[in-house]
Each structure stands twice: as structure tokens, then as C-alpha cells.
Amino acid sequence: MITFQTISSETYKKDHDKFKICYDFYDAPFGRCIIALTDTDKAILHFAFVVKDDTDAVKDLENEWPMSKIVKDSIQIISNIMKNIFTVSNEKEEEPLLILLKGTDFQIQVWKALMSIPKGKMTTYEQVAQIINKPKALRAVANAIGRNRIAYLIPCHRVMGKNGSSKYNCGLKYKESILSYESNTC
């Protein structure tokens, strides 16, 4: 079960001193990723694939949360969370996850709509726009999906163009790997 907290960019700027962020790397079934969470309530606020190298991945995290103190996780909380996310078992009780979304109201609405796309299924930008009752906002929906900073958990990888075109910020290799993983674990 995933629950959300949200924060606007303005609130972050005002309250940035309250944010200490812990990060670590994890080798997911479909590739290496960087995950970051808040120090206090362990809310996941960043989950991205390592496209170039670890240093660039940390720089991307720092650019997303520029006024925060960012430290490497030294007590393996993140590793335990990730193992729980990727343990496939019919008997496993799903651990609740808390995700912190930073963005505009519209972006957050789009990201939450992505959560309604069933695992292993695909949809289009047009269908996402319809889910949020903004059928003419295709470009804005596509931009919001492109700004998603919680890969895999906020499933932007399940969206494609109406003509079947497929894009993914981290590259199509990751998108295809995730979709294959999901189809094998559904």
C-alpha cells in the first residue's frame, strides 16, 4: 500500500532546513537505481535509475533538492525498503510505503493518476488526461509525467503515445526491463 504526502516547491523553499535526506544505491531486478528518503518519516522522495554513473545520479538528487542536507544512508534502511519492494511472494504482506511528492497541484494529480494503471498494463497520455478530467491537456500531462522523480513506484513507464511511441527519461532499456519484470511478476 502506498500513501502520499505532498509538498509544494514554495513550501520546500520556506521549510528546507527541516529536510535531511538519506540516499543509497540499489541493484533492482531491472538495473541500478538511487533511492532517497526523508530522515524523519522515511518518505521516499527520489527513485531514479543510474544512467551514467553514481556521481551523476547523486548530482541529479542534489539538483532536485538543492537546499537540503543530503547524506548516504549508513544504516541500510533504504536497502531493507527496496528488498521489501522487490520480494515477490504470494504470502508476503505488503509493507506500507510513504512517498513524498514535490510539485504543482497539476503534477501531483497526474502522478497520482498513474497509480491507477494496473501492473503489467499500458495506457496513453490521452487516457491519463481523461483520468484527471483534463482531456485537452495532453502536453501538460506529458510534461508532468516527464517530471516524475519516483520511478517504478509512480509508474510513468506504463504510458506511451497514442501511436505506440515510447519515451522514458532514463532510457527505453529501463522501460522495457521494468515492463518485462512486471509482466513476469503479475
SSE layout:
Blueprint: E1 2-7, H1 9-15, E2 20-28, E3 31-38, E4 44-49, H2 54-64, E5 69-72, H3 77-86, E6 97-102, H4 105-114, E7 123-124, H5 125-131, H6 138-146, E8 159-160, H7 172-185
Parallel strand pairs: 1-6, 2-5, 7-8
Antiparallel strand pairs: 2-3, 3-4
Helix pairs in contact: 4-6
TL;DR?
This protein is an alpha/beta fold and 186 residues long.
- Relative strand content: 15-25%
- In round numbers, the mean pLDDT is 87
Overall spatial form: globular
Q: Helix count? A: 7
End-to-end gap: 16 Å
Strands side by side in the biggest sheet: 4-3-2-5
| Low-confidence residue ranges | none
Order of helices and strands: EHEEEHEHEHEHHEH
Oligomer: single chain
Description:
The chain has helices at residues 9-15, 54-64, 77-86, 105-114, 125-131, 138-146, 172-185; strands spanning 2-7, 20-28, 31-38, 44-49, 69-72, 97-102, 123-124, 159-160. It is α/β, with parallel strands linked by helices and 186 residues long. The protein has a four-stranded mixed β-sheet, with helices on both faces. Helix 4 (105-114) crosses helix 6. The longest helix has 14 residues, at 172-185. The radius of gyration is 16 Å and the shape is globular. The model has no long low-confidence stretch (mean pLDDT 87).
